[in-house]
Amino acid sequence: MGEFHFVEAAQGRGKENYKSRAGQTVSLHGAVGKIRKMSGFAFVLLRTSAGTEQCVWEERESEFPLELLCEETCIEAEAVVREEPRARAGYELRLKRVRVLSAPARELPFAVGNREINTSFEKMLDYRPLVLRNERERAVFRLQACLCRAFREYLEGQGFVEAHTPKLVSEGAEGGANIFRLDYFGRPAYLAQSPQFYKQILTGVFERVYEIGPVFRAEKHDTSRHLNEYTGVDFEMGYISGFEEIMEMETGMLRFAMEYLEQNAAEELALRDVRLPKIDRIPAVRFHEAKERIAAKYRRTISDYEDFEPEEERLLCELIQKETGSEFVFVTHYPSAKRPFYAMDTPGNPEVTESFDLLFRGLEVTTGGQRIHNCAQQIEKMERRGMNPEDFESYLMLHRYGAPPHGGLGLGLERLTARLLGMENVRQAALFPRDIHRLTP
Amino acid sequence: MGEFHFVEAAQGRGKENYKSRAGQTVSLHGAVGKIRKMSGFAFVLLRTSAGTEQCVWEERESEFPLELLCEETCIEAEAVVREEPRARAGYELRLKRVRVLSAPARELPFAVGNREINTSFEKMLDYRPLVLRNERERAVFRLQACLCRAFREYLEGQGFVEAHTPKLVSEGAEGGANIFRLDYFGRPAYLAQSPQFYKQILTGVFERVYEIGPVFRAEKHDTSRHLNEYTGVDFEMGYISGFEEIMEMETGMLRFAMEYLEQNAAEELALRDVRLPKIDRIPAVRFHEAKERIAAKYRRTISDYEDFEPEEERLLCELIQKETGSEFVFVTHYPSAKRPFYAMDTPGNPEVTESFDLLFRGLEVTTGGQRIHNCAQQIEKMERRGMNPEDFESYLMLHRYGAPPHGGLGLGLERLTARLLGMENVRQAALFPRDIHRLTP
């Protein structure tokens, strides 16, 4: 056998610090975000993976015509670093040579390099591949990635194990009509509405388990709060003494995440003018009490005793913030009628459950609670609801073979991101949102 | 408004070090894995989140009857730590009191607390919720979680941003019949065969992007290598000079991951008797050359010039290991006919592509390569294949508006795990495997 060619491992790549390299020639690459022509020279703002670099083209210094560049041209460049106190970064990069790697084949429908993209909301969604290149749009998802990193770090520090559970399932966890159906080699299958059954099963394995992954809801709602596919941050923990422990874990996780963002995403936070919420401890209020307080405070009549109207969630948050300063509030003890069959009823009061929602800046971002771990209890509750336990045999293995007391929660990543960034519509917090009308891009 | 109840953040939880607490009374919880009765006393092996604790029930010391316990009973216990040189851990826990949190409602179909579960392969899959409780089974997925942590840490250190791309799509990236179809509010939709289009699009946004998430293949193969839903470790990077850079990145990532496992999962590696591969640099061989070498070395006739047979993959790995010592091998320049429409052909030789597979211990675990970034080239290749570019409008926005030269790869997490652990069947490396016959548990 002849000679081999060997692949060496990639070298680490640090962030360039141009400021300390005044006078030196540097190489960099990126896409042209914006060109601002002046007389005899031009500013060329180059969007790199790290941010935006202010480059300067000058007739006498640059060895190429300015016409070589247009917005969204991908280039490799050689430039000389020059101190420039008037530039935001304190330096600018004087372009010497460029190599065009690719150029747009079509005129842009709108400018991407401006601070804000000037087009309609619908077009912003249609042109997502282009829109996301905008630095402020991109920052949304850098922040989202940073949130996930923080969640993982916190949960793993608390002994949670990451799981990858199937999205193709034979039973829906949440029931109802809000489930996507498909044909699976001649059998009906569904898309998981959550990793609910699996994460519960895994409390018997790992004790503490989490997953950040896609969940699917075939809801026909067309609102600013709903997506038909979203990213669920799910965790579940065994050997709990009550659902208070789940809320404590979430409080810790969110506090950690906010501090993590502050320390690791300062640029993105500034780009989006984000005001991070302070999280010390989070007030909790019972569902029925919350209902009555809102009614009393805002002189509203209660029309639905089993659920919140969106306006009530907004008002409750307003009220809680005024009284406690907290932008988060746990609402506990939701009516059993509105909670799934696996929710544990409150001992002595089966009308309500050992469950909670977390509201943040007017919107529900989390649902959680303790689950039934006793087999007979679970089967009894299923039957009371007209469900057939035989349809849930593999799920019930958890209960049949000794399940620890357990509970957990599901947090909507896009909703949290949207509220954090003050976005009106949750679609803005999804890279490629899916709604009842939208399956592309 | 009345008083509030406030939820405090959870406290951190360190791993207990019982060994240093001889003589003290400690509290712990877990599931009874195994009871070994002796005369006047019994060993009760308690499966905790951290591992297995050797507890001892003794007639005179324990304030409860041994009959209270059976396998898979979840308990909270108070016990006294006693030094015990004969115990593997150097101590044992003398049970004082226990509280039964839940007990199995049905007899176990097999013992879970033994080193190996003694049942058929099919039953191992049917009883997954129970099987996974076995310590050696559980270790598989702790190792898998650890692998993901390593991948993320490495990639984030290299400037990759995590993305959550949609699994409900309007076009399949890989084409062919291997795609699940469903109804999306009256329109046809598909389950993503990979995040291919989206990660490519995102090279224009983040430059470097990765995702670890579910991918769906409606393949009718019923082999030990195929799953219909698996976890894809996908990354994509912009501004590359060639596909060699992708292989370098993977080499670095795998090397990092192996070191990471060694440092962070010693117990699980020991439980599974894992022999980690040494990764320094990885040999690379061209597809056609590999074909010919196998044929020559093993006196085989080549029946398929465009693809490997599984046996050839096995033989190639054997041969490479003999000659270079490496258990990994990159195979490069796969025939264009067998690669997707987005694969970049090799300049000057359009019969082959700038692509590679990575084989590990006889099995393909990764497919990757450079993609076409030029718009005209991409449209031309689509049309040559009889595809209609209009069906791919949103994907082509990448190319139309200036795409950096880019490439990436997809690695099958279950396949890598299976080969690493010396498992014959990839199903053993999925928490809840999905195959052509299996949609539960």
Question: Which helices and strands occur, and which strands form pairs?
Answer:
Two copies of one chain form a homodimer.
Chain A: E1 5-7, E2 25-37, E3 41-47, E4 52-58, E5 74-83, E6 91-102, H1 121-126, H2 128-131, H3 135-157, E7 161-162, E8 168-169, E9 181-184, E10 187-191, H4 196-203, E11 208-216, E12 229-238, H5 244-264, H6 266-271, E13 282-286, H7 287-298, H8 310-324, E14 328-332, E15 345-346, E16 349-353, E17 355-360, E18 363-370, H9 375-384, H10 393-400, E19 406-412, H11 413-420
Parallel strand pairs in A: 4-6, 7-11, 13-14
Antiparallel strand pairs in A: 2-3, 2-5, 3-4, 5-6, 8-10, 9-10, 11-12, 12-19, 14-17, 15-16, 17-18, 18-19
Helix pairs in contact in A: 3-5, 7-8
Describe the structure in your own words:
The structure is a homodimer of 441-residue chains. Chain A has 441 residues and is of the alpha+beta class. Chain A is 27% helix and 28% strand. Chain A is built from eleven helices and 19 strands. Chain A has helices at 121-126, 128-131, 135-157, 196-203, 244-264, 266-271, 287-298, 310-324, 375-384, 393-400, 413-420, and strands at residues 5-7, 25-37, 41-47, 52-58, 74-83, 91-102, 161-162, 168-169, 181-184, 187-191, 208-216, 229-238, 282-286, 328-332, 345-346, 349-353, 355-360, 363-370, 406-412. In chain A, the strands form four sheets. The first copy, chain A, has an eight-stranded mixed sheet with strand order 7-11-12-19-18-17-14-13, with helices on both faces. In chain A, helix 3 crosses helix 5 (244-264). The longest helix of chain A has 23 residues, at 135-157. Chain A is elongated. The mean pLDDT of chain A is 95. Chains A and B meet through strand 1, helix 2, helix 3, strand 7 and strand 8 of A and strand 1, helix 2, helix 3, strand 7 and strand 8 of B.
